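Lab manual, section 2.4: Encoding a predicted structure.

Procedure: take the sequence of the chain (109 residues), apply the prediction step described in section 2.3, and record the output as structure tokens. A sample record is shown.
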Amino acid sequence: METCTFNEAKRLVRQLVAEKGFPDDESALGQKLLWAFVELGEAADAYKKGKDWDTISEELIDAIFYILDFIGLVEKTQGVKIDVDRLFLEKWRKNMSRPRQYGQKREIH
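Recorded output:
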């Protein structure tokens, strides 16, 4: 079974963008974030309608594609390097050190 890191996935998404001719300049940054939200909405709608888990998961992966594309485009246009693997682990560790149900002000019923 193939696996890849977030950084490798970012590279693959950027390759897809280049090969398929998707927008790839600084003016597309906002569009990439908007499409990530759209894909999250599609996942929520699929869940609400009782669609199968593969369909829901595919919409979530589409959102991840747009997020990784955004990060890769920031790297390209802003001249920065973003280590997504490192950031993920740092954020995970930070969240693990927080109290149980941190940020939860109300009970979810």
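Check your result against the sample. The mean pLDDT is 94.
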